[in-house]
C-alpha cells in the first residue's frame, strides 16, 4: 500500500525508497486476474474497535490505556502470483494489514493465513511453484511529521 503516490514495481527494492510512504504486508507479484480478490474497509464498528484495542493492549503492555477509534483493514484473499502456469495457479496466499489509531498513536498489524508462494515470474520466480527469484518482503516505511498539531504520514 502506498500513500503519497502510486508505486508500481512488484519486485522488492532496498529501503529507504526516497519520497515513498509504503506499507508492504507482502511485497510480491500478486495477480488478481488469475484468482482471489482484494478488499478493504475503514470502520468504527464497536466490535472491530474492541478487537483492535485488545490486540494492541495484549502485545504492548505499556499501552494499557490505548483505545482504538478507527480501524482500516485490507485483505488479499486467496491470491495467485503473476505468470503462474496451470500448476502454479493452484498456489494461493491470504494475508491482511490492519491499521488502527486512537488519534494520537497508530499501529500496523500484519496477519498471514496461508502462504504457498513468494515470487511471481516478473521477479524471477518459477511459474509452477512461485518460488525462487527475488522473494516477497515485508516492510514498513512511513515518515511522520507534525503539521499544525496533526500527525501526517
Automatic annotation (TrEMBL):
Q: Please state what the protein is called.
A: NIDO domain-containing protein
Q: Which domain of life is it from?
A: Eukaryota
From what organism does this protein derive? Tegillarca granosa
Coiled coil residues, start to end = none
The NIDO domain sits at 25-153
Matches recorded under Pfam families: NIDO
